[in-house]
């Protein structure tokens, strides 16, 4: 057992190192664009930067500075988008680090155009680098990493050329350093202006003399206005006391003015701003010099005394200065200083609201594209396709991307002023926009929208509304006239009918109406449907899905014809829809026939009322309606699911569902006991599982929450996978569940798991069908992004959702949260890189230390594979089940052996 523990420890340690600074003293030294690792003369290990960045190209820059020549690797970003970032995981969430970056151009591209670009640390833009002014260029920042990732970005400037970087170094600093005399440090970033080893006239000094690898420059070039000699005296002190821990070697030298009574440093600063200054003193002389310290004419400290053998520091902040005149004026003996540091204080702007970030991430996921949206949308510079004011997202342009619907998350983008969704394959009603009260410009043109809906009337700031080239039908709502700021309304090329409401008849509003059936303010001129003929408009091309896509047929047909033939077409379409429906649904409702198809019992509404004691005890609620506890005459407990009126299915669909559910009998699927279909009631009666749902156990409050061990979690996963495997492979027809999630996995008292709620499920009837095209349904956080973007439903969509459940079991957190950092909002995006790297520090605290790493690895790997974006890369549920069984067996053996050892 001891040996096993040691191995576990070793394994954890290794995986930990993968994602953290792991060199000496926590150093991380990246050779940007480098191919190999190497150690420099100070024994510092330099590694290629590929772990931390994926974009950009690499090159080698050769140059010489007179005496010697160098070959430096570099990474550059041609035609770069808005920002290119290094993302470096930090091992400790509040760590002060030094970030040092070097930039080199040396005409490596032969264009003789040194680039100009900005550099950001965290959310703050720290400095603009202009390699035409200085080449090479070096920058140093001190920053408190508040998040779990250190983000360092290069941000292209219009016409500034390709940003280029050659090295990046991260050095942890002493805890608590560089905060004295400064309020509110966590919101400041310090950019180094000077770090001078006073009195030291040779080369700069750094690691290993400074264990934190700060570079202390010799001071000869900084003091043009006085003559003084540097002293170096072997000291009697052995450690410096300031919390910054300046190295003893630095304090051993000092500038002491022997013949005059004032010592002055004149330090030019490159920008106007607030500066943080630290002066270090060490008693290296056998006397106690005292002096006044004057900065830019103001005495900041009078009668400062240095005690022999002691070290001390003075911290000063100066607001709004452009240059620094530091003068020490003698009171007794000679003025003296040993080291000084000067930093510009850069404000760190507050981050974009988590609701906005999370909404944008969901939107990105739904597009199925990698839009490069990572970290904060606005800061340090806005993502592509969006624009910001400060940390508010005010503009979003997703034109030409296949969205298909305006998802509810758009309604969370409360600060939007401009929304451009033209040519995004939208269909149906205009919806999910009613909260966007600041919206000024809305472009929904070149889609297949069919209904104006009611959301637009809430957009009181709207100035421009572009709805041209859709398939909008019906009349233009009167309420649009209430939008007082509206000055352009484009309705061209729709199927709208007149007359236009008089409320729109005002001077300030320009309305474009050509290409509609009959759209004028006049009520009489509408007899002739062809009076307003369709004008030739660019045709939106829809790539038809491989098979039976009702929507697409509809959209293509509507898109290609004028008004006259509409009635005929509508007829054809109805037939088409009807035919398509028939493939999936049975269209009879008579009770007698139900009895023939269904093994399940048919209840009367009266029987249901008695069983539930008049719907007394609610045990669940959902968008579909409520679930009540009931007891059948034979004493059996049941869960009675009653649909709200609004959520009721057509009779066909309900019968279809009952028919489907009643055929399914499997130990890991919740059994349908019966149903009731009377008058307006649609009620399903299920077997009752008293153990609650998996979600209750993982996240429930107080009594429900139950710490599940790893082995239990695996057992639950195996059970649920068996149920799902039966649906996919065991039942005839095959069934896709469509709503796999933790709250749909129920437990009995023995903790056996069963999958429930097949309400959304689809049968795959045709022998050869590989997928079903449907309207996207499911639960946010569990939705297969590929299904979302293509609307093609396959069994792999269930595998994706099940993968999310596995990640929840491993990490003990919900698929979407709004706390923590933006990168952690989405479980899949957050957990994947950690688990891939075998970094199990994200495993649920409740099971940490009690799992066999091999078992965890198996489960983690199959979870990651299941949530692959590309559905074809995902395993089948049968493969998932096999892996989970193995993981379960390994963990069982692990528990056995540890029991035997004890
Ligand atoms: C980060 O981890 C490394 C080793 O893993 C350690 O040396 C370093 O001190 C840690 N940094 C902080 C600030 O905890
Ligand atoms: C730099 O690279 C060139 C070509 O690969 C090589 O000839 C030269 O010796 C290298 N110089 C140094 C200093 O490594
Ligand atoms: C981070 O470092 C500080 C100081 O070294 C320590 O007090 C704190 O516990 C650490 N936090 C974590 C999460 O390791
Ligand atoms: C500075 O360098 C010179 C020659 O390079 C050397 O003679 C001298 O001792 C050095 N001084 C110190 C203080 O290291
Ligand atoms: C050097 O450090 C040791 C232990 O920290 C201390 O006992 C000793 O007094 C120090 N020496 C001087 C000269 O301060
Ligand atoms: C620096 O400040 C001192 C004292 O305030 C003053 O005498 C001196 O002229 C100043 N030097 C410059 C270059 O401004
Ligand atoms: C300066 O301070 C020392 C002790 O800290 C004191 O003895 C001396 O009188 C002070 N000098 C003046 C001019 O205030
Ligand atoms: C619409 O977007 C598609 C890409 O989704 C693009 O290929 C097509 O050219 C766009 N059509 C128009 C009219 O802009």
UniProtKB/TrEMBL annotation:
The chain crosses the membrane at residues 554-578. It catalyses: L-seryl-[protein] + ATP = O-phospho-L-seryl-[protein] + ADP + H(+); L-threonyl-[protein] + ATP = O-phospho-L-threonyl-[protein] + ADP + H(+). Keywords: ATP-binding, Kinase, Leucine-rich repeat, Membrane, Nucleotide-binding, Phosphoprotein, Receptor, Repeat, Serine/threonine-protein kinase, Signal, Transferase, Transmembrane, Transmembrane helix. Its main location: membrane. Pfam families: LRR_8, Malectin_like, PK_Tyr_Ser-Thr. CDD domains: STKc_IRAK. The keyword Ribonucleoprotein does not apply. The keyword Disulfide bond does not apply. Residues 1-22 form the signal peptide. InterPro entries: Kinase-like_dom_sf, Leu-rich_rpt, Leu-rich_rpt_typical-subtyp, LRR_dom_sf, Malectin-like_Carb-bd_dom, Prot_kinase_dom, Protein_kinase_ATP_BS, Ser-Thr/Tyr_kinase_cat_dom. SMART domains: LRR_TYP (SM00369), S_TKc (SM00220). One of its GO terms (cellular component) is membrane. Its EC number is 2.7.11.1. Residues 613-895 form the Protein kinase domain. It is a single-pass membrane protein. This is non-specific serine/threonine protein kinase. It comes from Flemingia macrophylla. The lineage of its organism: Eukaryota, Viridiplantae, Streptophyta, Embryophyta, Tracheophyta.
